[in-house]
Specification:
By secondary structure, the protein is of the alpha+beta class. It is 32% helix and 13% strand. The protein has helices at 14-37, 83-90, 146-153, 163-175, 182-188, 199-210; strands at 4-5, 11-12, 62-68, 71-77, 109-112, 115-118, 131-133. It is globular. Bound molecules: FE2/S2 (inorganic) cluster (2 copies).
Length: 224
C-alpha cells in the first residue's frame, strides 16, 4: 500500500489520514452543533471563527468600542476574533481560561452586559457597545469578591483551571436567585465543568455567599 502525503508534507498510511479526517469532522460537527444550539449558526461569519489561519487585509478589520472591567476601549479587530481570544491574546486578560474552545466546559465564562456567556462562542464584534466583566474586574483593590472568598473558605478548586469560570457563573447564579437549594445550584452551575471534581466545595461556596457566611478575613487582598 502506498503512503499519502498530507498538507503538511508528512507521509502517512491512508488509514491514518482517514482516521485523522474523521476526527476533525467530528470536532467540526460538535463545534457547529454548539453554535446552532446557541442560535449563532445563522450568521455566516460565525462559521469562519473556528479557522483564523488565513489572515485578512487590515482594511477588512472592524472597529469596536466596548467597556472592559470599567475601562472604555476602542480597537480594530479581525471580525473572526472570539471574545475569549480578544481578552487573552490581545488584551492580556489571561484570568479567563480556554478549556474546550467550543462551548462545553464554561472555563471561559465572562459577563456581558450582566449576562454570563461563554466567551469562546461569542465573537468580539458581538460585544461592541457592551460592558464586559472578567475575573480581573470583580472585587476591589483591597477586597476579593465574596464568591472568591467563599471558594477559598470551602476549597472550591484543586488545579484552579476552571475556577475563574466557576466564580463568574456563581456570581450570576446568586444574582439570578437560582441558589435556593443545593440541587438548584448544581443545575444552574451545570455548564461549568471541573475535571478535578471540586463540585462539593463549589456548591458549598455558593451556599456560603447566599447565607452571608463568608469569613471577612478571607476577603482581604494581601499585597506582600
Ligand atoms: S472554553 Fe469556552 S466553554 Fe470551554
Ligand atoms: S479545579 Fe481543576 S478543573 Fe476545576
Amino acid at each position: 500500500m502506498k503512503k499519502e502525503t498530507t498538507q503538511h508534507n508528512e507521509e502517512r498510511w491512508p488509514e491514518e489520514v482517514s482516521q485523522e479526517k474523521a476526527l476533525l469532522n467530528r470536532r467540526e460537527f460538535i463545534f457547529l452543533s454548539s453554535l446552532a444550539a446557541a442560535g449563532l449558526a445563522a450568521a455566516p461569519y460565525v462559521l469562519t471563527a473556528c479557522d483564523q489561519r488565513d489572515p485578512i487585509p487590515l482594511s477588512e478589520y472592524t472597529e469596536i468600542q466596548l467597556v472592559i472591567n470599567e475601562k472604555e476601549m476602542k480597537m480594530k479587530i479581525d471580525p473572526r476574533t472570539s471574545l475569549l481570544d480578544l481578552l487573552r491574546e490581545q488584551l492580556g486578560l489571561t484570568g479567563t481560561k480556554k478549556g474546550c474552545n467550543q462551548g462545553a466546559c464554561g472555563a471561559c465564562t465572562v459577563h456581558l452586559d450582566g449576562m454570563r456567556v461563554n466567551s469562546c462562542l461569542t465573537l468580539a464584534v458581538q460585544a461592541d457597545g457592551l460592558q464586559v466583566t472578567t475575573i480581573e474586574g470583580i472585587g476591589t483593590d483591597d477586597e476579593f469578591h465574596p464568591v472568591q472568598g467563599a471558594f477559598l473558605a470551602h476549597d472550591g478548586y484543586q488545579c484552579g483551571y476552571c475556577t475563574s469560570g466557576q466564580i463568574m457563573s456563581a456570581i450570576m447564579v446568586l444574582k439570578e436567585n437560582h441558589a435556593d437549594t443545593r440541587e438548584e445550584i448544581q443545575e444552574w452551575m451545570s455548564g461549568n465543568l471541573c475535571r478535578c471534581g471540586a463540585y462539593k466545595g463549589i456548591v458549598a461556596a455558593v451556599e456560603a455567599v447566599r447565607d452571608n457566611a463568608v469569613p471577612k478575613e478571607l476577603l482581604v487582598r494581601k499585597t506582600s
